[in-house]
TrEMBL record:
Belongs to the TBCB family. Residues 175-211 form the CAP-Gly domain. This is Cell polarity protein alp11. GO terms for molecular function: microtubule plus-end binding. One of its GO terms (biological process) is cytoplasmic microtubule organization. It comes from Wickerhamiella sorbophila. Keywords: Chaperone, Cytoplasm. The keyword Chaperone applies. PROSITE patterns: CAP_GLY_1, CAP_GLY_2. One of its GO terms (cellular component) is nucleus. It is found in: Cytoplasm. SUPFAM superfamilies: Cap-Gly domain, Ubiquitin-like.
């Protein structure tokens, strides 16, 4: 660009080098600066420094038709741009453009949105909740058996009377719900513990763990005798 000079334009959000013509007017300079900094010409306060960063002087005393050469702007000069608008009025197009907010119902229908990406990748509120181990109370309610109640239990050597001592999972044996029983006879396999972990107290060989389907709870008014 024959005859043009390079200047450094420095704003609050940008610092760039640009070619300008010595014949440009102050009005043209401000219009160019708006495209770089976003500051409207009416809100620009310009000062210029020499190529060494010294001799700072204001350009506000010059008229809009004053040329670059007449203002003493030379090769490698620095033009500092200050925004005179209040901070809450900056970068909002002076409030003249109404902001558009897409209705949520329309946004949820878009296939190129962040929301859709999260839905496809099961992130955020679309993430599947991890399976939670039910509490003993939940398991007890699920199988309708109550700890402390007497019951009938089907064992290999017949149906026996026992007391429900535990309902829940047991480490070291197949997963699922187990019912720990305190037998009245030494027909069990443990004392209420399995592989060193205790689930209830019972005498030796008076404890046993069975599935809920093998247990029938005795009603308080039931006077059935042991079969």
């Amino acid at each position: 660009m024959t005859g043009d000079i390079v200047v450094n334009i420095v704003g609050e959000l940008a610092s760039v080098e640009r070619y300008i013509s010595p014949g440009w007017t102050l009005e043209q300079i401000k219009a160019r600066i708006e495209t770089i900094t976003g500051v409207p010409p009416a809100s620009q306060m310009l000062t210029v420094r020499d190529p060494h960063g010294h001799s700072r002087r204001s350009l506000e005393s010059f008229g809009p038709s004053t040329t670059v050469a007449a203002m003493g702007i030379t090769e490698k000069s620095q033009i500092d741009v200050s925004d005179t608008r209040p901070r809450d009025r900056r970068l909002d197009f002076n409030g003249e453009v109404e902001k558009y907010e897409m209705p949520l119902s329309d946004y949820e229908k878009r296939s190129d949105s962040v929301l859709e990406w999260k839905r496809q990748n099961r992130l955020g509120r679309f993430q599947e909740a991890p399976l939670q181990t039910p509490t003993h109370e939940e398991i007890e309610e699920e199988c309708s058996l109550t700890v402390g109640k007497d019951c009938w239990v089907k064992l290999a050597n017949g149906t026996k009377k026992a007391q429900i001592a535990y309902v829940g999972s047991v480490e070291g044996i197949p997963a699922g719900t187990w019912v720990g029983l305190r037998l009245h006879e030494a027909l069990g396999k443990n004392d209420g513990s399995v592989k060193g972990k205790r689930y209830f107290d019972a005498e030796a060989n008076h404890g046993v763990f069975v599935r809920p389907s093998a247990v029938t709870e005795i009603d308080d008014n039931d006077d059935l005798e042991e079969l």
